[in-house]
Request: fold
Amino acid sequence: MLIIMHVNSTAEQIEQVKQKIIDLNLTPHVIPGRTRCAIGITGNKGALSADYFKHLPGVVQCITVTKPYKLVSREVHPEDTVIELGDVQIGGPEITVIAGPCSVENELQIFDIARQLAKMGVKFLRGGAFKPRTSPYSFQGLGEKGLKLLARVREETGMKIVSEVLDTEYLELVTEYVDVVQVGARNMYNYSLLKRVGKINKPVLLKRGLSATLEEFLMSAEYILSHGNFQVILCERGIRTFSTHSRNTLDINVIPMVKQLSHLPIIIDPSHASGERNSVPPLARAAIAVGADGIMVEVHPDPENALSDGHQSLYPFQFKQLLEQVQKIAGIIN
Amino acid sequence: MLIIMHVNSTAEQIEQVKQKIIDLNLTPHVIPGRTRCAIGITGNKGALSADYFKHLPGVVQCITVTKPYKLVSREVHPEDTVIELGDVQIGGPEITVIAGPCSVENELQIFDIARQLAKMGVKFLRGGAFKPRTSPYSFQGLGEKGLKLLARVREETGMKIVSEVLDTEYLELVTEYVDVVQVGARNMYNYSLLKRVGKINKPVLLKRGLSATLEEFLMSAEYILSHGNFQVILCERGIRTFSTHSRNTLDINVIPMVKQLSHLPIIIDPSHASGERNSVPPLARAAIAVGADGIMVEVHPDPENALSDGHQSLYPFQFKQLLEQVQKIAGIIN
Amino acid sequence: MLIIMHVNSTAEQIEQVKQKIIDLNLTPHVIPGRTRCAIGITGNKGALSADYFKHLPGVVQCITVTKPYKLVSREVHPEDTVIELGDVQIGGPEITVIAGPCSVENELQIFDIARQLAKMGVKFLRGGAFKPRTSPYSFQGLGEKGLKLLARVREETGMKIVSEVLDTEYLELVTEYVDVVQVGARNMYNYSLLKRVGKINKPVLLKRGLSATLEEFLMSAEYILSHGNFQVILCERGIRTFSTHSRNTLDINVIPMVKQLSHLPIIIDPSHASGERNSVPPLARAAIAVGADGIMVEVHPDPENALSDGHQSLYPFQFKQLLEQVQKIAGIIN
Amino acid sequence: MLIIMHVNSTAEQIEQVKQKIIDLNLTPHVIPGRTRCAIGITGNKGALSADYFKHLPGVVQCITVTKPYKLVSREVHPEDTVIELGDVQIGGPEITVIAGPCSVENELQIFDIARQLAKMGVKFLRGGAFKPRTSPYSFQGLGEKGLKLLARVREETGMKIVSEVLDTEYLELVTEYVDVVQVGARNMYNYSLLKRVGKINKPVLLKRGLSATLEEFLMSAEYILSHGNFQVILCERGIRTFSTHSRNTLDINVIPMVKQLSHLPIIIDPSHASGERNSVPPLARAAIAVGADGIMVEVHPDPENALSDGHQSLYPFQFKQLLEQVQKIAGIIN
Reply:
């Protein structure tokens, strides 16, 4: 923590700040400047709250130096986290591809798409059973019935299942059926849910909130790790900006930054970022080119008749072409 | 719904769109233009999903005309909703003032501030017992112990209690103790929680999410009303923008817009919008001047030693001056 | 400047940073922390560029402490700047009201509205002669003809004229005719123009850019002051955010911040912030309530037939009511 | 244009809107709906202003259907625009690479970097002679001296020169020396300058403004085309959002959208988008993967001692590696 004093601060005010620091069992370091004085603080283990100093007379600004996250930080854990699910890895040398429909709609649909994807070599199937919808009048998902269908698909195809949990009430149920529990963008700040998924023994796919800063995103992951679950996969899915030509603005620069600050794997969801089918393949290629550990893409056997997100779902043939392109791009980068 | 066709769309493509509309038991209206053709749709009761048409060949854009909300809409319910709590009203001719500390910290603190506020004529006491914190290492609130203190304060002072609920797990507990259940900004998209507060029989104070559009905000209220609870108070508390001189950007223009679109009362929280004590009184005055039904302000008996949000909490004497100013401004507007 | 070193930085790296600071004739202050070391710098007169240090091995972050602006700063010039135009002041105890149409359209229109406004006691008339328009196909203003009409209005009514300059080419012309030269939001980053208006001897009304931070806004004013013109009036007119219910988001919190950081007067333009007539009076009231030195409002004698911005222009009778309200609010605050 | 009427609008109000449309020599199409009525308008050649209707009683919303741009539109000009500069193309099958320092600093620096880049096969050299700087106290560029150095570099290396023009005053000078005239992000709304570059006979590189919507960006290009210059290259360089981990947020989704809406070539500037050296190569790879026609990258022979933007400039060896990667990615996409 660095405390900046007003140009006209008095010796007495500086003394008061120093005393406050000493009272907290920390050490003050007064740095006299030409126009104003600053006071450095050392001795704190984690981040120090500015609240202790902001109100003191003569204080202009409190600058936090230590990062508030610990367990997710690469400084603490320098090697990449690689998550193992049987013979498949997330965060390792191979890129991870998660594909499937927005929602599980019925047996025919989910088996149809899963078989096509498995044949292409896709190892992870996504499919929502519980859906967060802006409108109370929209389709809210099949619930447990959807989870059961996903489990049957796994039995047949061997694919790993990724599906979203909306609340603590159904967490146990969802965890039982799936291989990776997804926490959606709307729940990134739902700390009650984060604490709970911090206690399950399955990997958690944590999506960035619509307006979450990188620090808040990492702090939400910190909630999960600090409650005992170290298997967290981050997912960038676009942020909300003034720019309206796409549903969200995919913030790809978060990838190199996360790689620098954290050891956790991070993937990109181009489907929710764009909101439009034709933009999904370009964004997916960019995701791999920028260094993401993988992509999560909506693919539907019959997008025109999808119950949700049909306009942003790829046709299977489009997805197949995309798969070839991203594999080639991944080969260039490594 | 209005469907815009490509300038070079064919008669066959137009026919296909028409047929799709007819299949949905709706009526197409072809509007031939000089450069392109548009197709209007009538006959739908609520909002129609663009998903039905977006993918059809020749379609360029689908424009939604009907608003997706119903119960919160002023078109459906022209008179203002006024919420009655005993002899106090929210949304009526008097402005509502909710004040108190960020968190309930201990008996001494909460009784001290409540007595001071009651003496000033404040009818609503705020105080968090369950706190949503960005860091898992920060003070998370006193929990039930805090609620019990609030209940004792009510007994003594007669003030109505406003406190936040973080999850469905503690909803019953919180509802039992408080007079108005607050759903915070981070939970505005937590539809599981919204459905549940839609079934309680106490008023709900719903804060706007950090990056929620006005339509999403109203849709979250619609979740509550559509589950049976019509006692909803909206609260603007600042949105997230590029502008970093304050913690959030208070979007005061939402007040006249809500007044036009909805019958629900709406108040402003200047404390979280600004994040700094000195900006709170100016923003609170602006809140009343722009036509809000009230304000919710953080006041602490000893801000320098507050466990949370001390730097944005007013001193009691500051709040008293503010109270006089906003009452005068309210008098000018009505 | 404070330089934060990596947790694993070596003694040699720290030495290298110290040497660089000494080479710049400044003084390094090493602050050893528990987990990492920081190096404070003193001796610099103005802001120091992070560019000198960012690239050195072991450096994690460079934190700027000194503000980059000087002349606009309240630290340098503690008393409020009050601009005098004959018997009228801007930034003094009276609030400033600037009103008039978006564009000067013809003799009838501008004389009609000016006479009505003068009768209400308004001292400043706004009216665009050169208009910045998003489309090359829109009405671009009457040019010099418009300026001449404004000058004739001044002769008759005694009102001061405020009108926009778009480029250096017409600066001399505009300056000759008007009393206050307006630099619009789209030109806030036009440093060539700012340098030039820094050399005229008339007050400049500088609007905040659509996505300008407060610091950039003040730096643009610094351009004008540093070229010799100290008569600058700042104007907040809304920023661009994700929020689409209004044309822009009025960032009222900038007012208390500017009052703290700078001595320059600042007014609010509620018309461009909202983009809709019905929201203008509430925003204008909020502007005065939050402590702005004045407002600039679009008023048109016949909004329905205005050549530009008709839907956000007030009717004269509406404006008259508003004027009474804001005067009363101003009375409460002072 | 589609006009949405209030649910309770009267027959008389509908009649009034119809009459207004007829008065404008256009054709109204009344579409009676179940809850409300809408009125379509046909017969207009370009975009119709909502201003004609917004104020009429009973009107709730005016929805613009026709796009406001014409000349830049792919609907009007279906084939890609390819710009020829001697034997080099922009917008053709080969990707365009523009590289060089932020500013021309001196003879040694610019010749050094240019020779290295030319040896790598780079055809376009960037280098600022006139620099837009936030602070009036920062280095503002060498001016004409810088342009002369660039011209001498061209003579020796054969590279095409790209350099920025800041104002109409120096446009003739800059145009004389360079091959591609750059209009920077801060000048995207400077319509006086856009009109002027619309009359030169050299290609213009137009950067997107920090908070410009895609439509505004295309409209600024329309200004240039409508004044006679069809050689426009668009450039995405990041937008301003709440996200602070990078200097700007690169909005890569604008590439597929521009490719759909317009025939103009578009490149990406990853250096200004990121603001940090280590993020530039990942973003540059993403730029090509998403389908941009090229990249513009800051490279400096000695970044640590650069006069501006050193921390975001690549070392020549880094750039060489990047060049190989982007060429391979380009090969995969086509």
